[in-house]
Design a protein that fits this description.
Helices cover 35% and strands 14% of the residues. It has 145 residues and is an alpha+beta fold.
Length: 145
């Protein structure tokens, strides 16, 4: 579980604490029980209707091959790599890691929970965090001239 102290990224900017999540995250983020459950317990895959309902609330994310899918474009390679670094730190703290691919300014992300055999609430939580990281990256790291 991520504590509020851990929600500050390397630039000192705070990601969304669970208590201060924007209203658009309602119905997307995991419940308190899902978010605080010890990872030793098996995480349950969401049902198709739940996945679709949560997906409708995310911008830019689609379903592809049974996984949440998104492609991010940045100004250059350095900006794309900064985004991946921010996300790697978040994913490590969460103990939940993306499948991703990077070429120059493009980062392709697929999210699924292998232990659950499908998409879980953890994938939606990481998707929201990644979207926030993309915004912070664009603000903090303008493209090189």
């Amino acid at each position: 579980m991520i504590t509020d102290e851990e929600r500050v990224d390397e630039a000192g900017k705070e990601s969304f604490p669970a208590s201060d999540s924007p209203s658009w995250t309602s119905g997307i983020l995991p419940s308190h029980e899902e978010a605080t459950a010890p990872r030793a317990m098996k995480v349950a895959a969401l049902g198709e209707a739940d996945v679709k309902a949560r997906l409708e609330k995310l911008t830019g994310w689609t379903l592809r091959g049974g996984k949440l899918h998104r492609e991010y474009l940045f100004g250059d390679f350095v900006e794309a790599f900064a985004f991946m670094t921010r996300c790697a730190r978040m994913a490590e703290r969460q103990g939940h890691h993306p499948e991703w691919f990077n070429v120059f300014n493009r980062v392709v992300v697929d999210l699924t929970t292998h232990d659950a055999g499908g998409i879980s609430a953890l994938d939606f939580a990481l998707a929201i965090e990644m979207d926030g990281a993309a915004l912070r990256t664009a603000e903090a790291d303008p493209p090189a001239p």
